[in-house]
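Problem: given the chain below (352 residues), write out its structure.
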Amino acid sequence: MAEAAGVSRQTVSNVLNAPDRVRAETRERVTKVIADLGYHPNHMARSLRASSPRMIGCRIQPLHAETVAAIQDRFLHALAEAGQECGHHLLLFAAADVAAEAEQCTALWRAGAVSGVVLYDITPDDPRPGRLTAAGVPFTAFGRTAVGTESYSWADVDNTAGTASAVDHLVAAGHRRIGFLGWPEGSSAGDARAHGWLTAVDRHGLLAASHRLDVRGDDTTTTGSRLMRELLDRPGPPTAVVAATDTFAVGALHAVRDQGLRPGRDVAVVGFDDSPAAAAMGLSSVRQPIKEVGRLVMAEVLRLTGRPPGADGEPPQEPLHRLLAPELVVRASSAPSQGSPPAGSDASPLCL
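Solution.
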C-alpha cells in the first residue's frame, strides 16, 4: 500500500492513526489508495500499538529543608496537567547525579517504559543533552546549556530580564545602592539572574555604588539571612536587594527585621519565583510562567516521541527553542520609600 501511494509505511500509519500529522494532499492520496485496494485495518495490531507506553520520564530531585520555592514541584504539576490532556502521564524516578540520570533515562526508553523524557535544572556544561542525543532518546529540557543549544529542544525563562526588571523597579522607587543575593557560579539560571542584576545596575550608572554588594551562598533561608546581615553591616549598606530566589529573599526579610529595620521602607527586598510564601509574606518577586513552560515542554516531547524525523516525507521540524518572559509582582517588601506603591501593584501587608 505504501509503495502504491508513493509514501513511507509511517505515512500510511499516520493517515490511519494520526491524520492531522499528514499534509492534506498526501492524506487524500493515501486514503484513495486504501479505498482502491479495499484495505481493512487489523484491529488486533491496533490494540497492540495502543498498549505502547504513554509515559514521559522525569527525574525528581530531593527538596531541601530550608527552601520555600519548590519550583520543580510546580513544574511537575504543570507537566502532569499538560500530559493528562493528551492521554500521557509522568513516570518519576530518582537518580544520584546527572550521569546516573542519563543512564536511567536511556534504560527506561530502551526498555519501553517511557516514550520520552524531560530534563530539568540544566547547567551551562550539562552532559545530559549530549548523552541522550547520542543514545537516540527523545527529550525536551527546561533550561539550556551555554553551547550547543541548537541541537536539542528546550524552553526556558528569561532569568536575565527577570532580575533586570527588579532593579528597574527599585531604581524607580529611588534606590541607588542595590545588592544581590545569589548562589555560586555554575548554574544556568543563577548565572543569568546575576548577569541581569549586574547589567541593570550598570545601565542605571549605579555599578560603582553597588559592585561590592554582590554576595553568594547556598540557596537556604539561613544563608539568605547571613548574607543579608553581612551586607547591612558593611559601610554604605544597600537600601535594597534583589535575591536570586524567594528562599534567599525570605532569609533576607528576617535579617532586616532582626536589625530593627522595616522591610519595604528602610530596606527593600525582591525575590525570584513568586512562590506561595512570597504572596503570604508580602514579598515582591519575579514570577516564572511555569504553567506555560510545562505546556510547551510536554507538547514538544510528545511531538518528538510521536513523529520520527521526516517520517511523512517532509523535512524534520526544527527543535523547540523558546525563551519566555517572567513578570515582576510588586508587593509591600519593595514599596516605594515615599508615597503609595505604583498603580496596579499587589501591595499586600508584610507579615513576618
